[in-house]
Task: structure prediction
Amino acid sequence: MNSIYFNEEHTMLRDQIRRFIEQRVMPVAEPWEEAGSVPREILQEMGELGFLGIRYSAEYGGSEMDALGSVILAEELGRSTFGGFAVTVLVHTDMASPHLDNFGNKAQLDKYMPDIISGKKIVGVAVTEPDVGSDVAAMKTRAVKDGDHYVLNGSKMFITNGVHGDLFFVAAKTDTSVKPSRGITIFAIEKGTPGFTVGRKLDKMGWLSSDTAELVFDNCRVPAENILGEENKGFYSIMRNFQNERMVLGAQSMGEASKALELTMDYVTTRKAFGGVLFDKQVIRQRLASLASQVEAGRQLVYHAAWLDAQGLDCIKEVSMVKAYCGELVNKVMYDCLQFHGGFGYIRESAIERMYRDARIQSIGGGATEVMLEEVSKRMI
Amino acid sequence: MKILVGVKRVIDFNVRVQVKSDGSGVVKDGVKMSMNPFDEIAVEEALRIKEAGNAEEVIVATIGPKACQEQLRTALAMGADRAIHVQTDEEVQPLTGARIFKALADKEQPKIILLGKQAIDDDNNQTAQMLGALSHWPQATFASEVKIEGETATVIREVDAGLETLSVDLPAVISVDLRLNEPRYVKLPDIMKAKRKPLETMSIEDLGVEHVAEVKVLKTVAPAKRQAGIKVDSVAELVTALKEKGLI
Result:
């Protein structure tokens, strides 16, 4: 692929991830959907290959690549056709662990980073609550100081890797006397900490191989040394991490959309109807060509946003555009791709049926389209 | 002991190759290029021989335009120690390729030269054999198993009748077949390190080899599309149909 954005290392990384997913994931991932989780061995294998530490310090086993490396990982995971597998990995690499990488102190990094990069410890991030989604400042979970500990009470909703994860970065209100955005703190809390339980595993429409849970904190005592970054500055950490999260979700969406178009091309160029193949029908090939053009545009916008990030430039507007545009587009692509698969597309054994269900969350999770467009509109005036 | 491995940049095996409309070749612009899969197996085997303690250095070499360095970097990321790029924009045919590898062998004095049995672009399957003849080294082609013991290589090769076992004295030329091994996944930290490994560039003339093109390609055409078949009910009908087509 000729592109102004990628160097030789990027290309080699993409080749390796693609090969790994085609050989080690796609042939065996169907049972993961039924089991509702991704086997730990696969994640560890990815860890050994360096895929879980693309941007992290070499001191801990990472490779210190830029944001384009994350985009490559997300796109290739999206191409796996198993959205649940993709998001299991991406939450670990690009949504949860960046909290530690960005705001953890030396002792915290030393303690957790090597195991995160090697896949020995899987991580999640707990911000969303049963009644609080994109409006982060409205969260209800409280952490009250008690000597050199904090006592947490509350629950967190839709937490990816919630059932099987080992370590969570949990946001809680530590100061209710100030503006809501100025009283949030992030804690690193390990599974097994007394008072921290998995409330229930949630049944989802798609992303079936990803385990999603409600996490419950009932008088959970956490040492003050587990605070990530500064006390009461958590809101800003969350906002900062949202940028990366949204960028990789956009990249994942475009990987999914590209793969769906390829699968559909295979189908419509072989499936016979009315004396020819489906692709002979102008309406079908025109629609696919139009979608392919839009996906290419979406992809280039993702690359541009990642490039801005790699240059250290502000990219909130572009990332918000990426999340809004790609999250909607992938749904449009899946709708048409399933349509062109005909009845076969409605059958559980077809990849496109799963991809259609998996895509639906892309316009919701990590920032709903409507919220993203507000972010864009604020930056238009 | 050194091992020299040849790698070639070819159109990726996943690409649906298109013939240019003027018949002057196939479309390469904007097409994904990769290391010839047989060569990847050769690199992997060299690394395994080294990791088993039977070699000290793995050198990878390629012939072609500047972009071929991508494939050398991939081989370095896999674990090769250094790379040689014989740079030319001309098309290189098997005999010139074999002469270049002979010159590299004279310079580097490897005990084993490992090559893919053929490249998936032109499928010539000639370079290893020509190199064996030019260097007067024993050759073991189509290897599906290679064992190194002292100054001898025992090679099991895939032939039409089954498997044949050869014992060859080193130095030797070995060409590898698909079932020899499965190349490793490259670790990202090794990809990052590959850039710092030595890559030497030279021209064909630097090696004292003359560039000759013995074979001239007149025209490239796509294979004819397969016609749909028909079903027949009996042997008699089949024979009649074949006769009608003038096939028997």
Remarks:
- Chain A has three domains: 8-121, 125-232, 235-378.
- The beta strands of chain A are 123-126, 142-146, 149-160, 167-173, 184-190, 196-201, 212-223, 227-228, 272-273, 276-277.
- The first helix of chain A runs from residue 8 to 25.
- Chain A touches chain B at residues 1-2, 8-9, 11-13, 15-16, 19-20, 48-51, 53-54, 58, 61, 63-65 (CB under 8 Å).
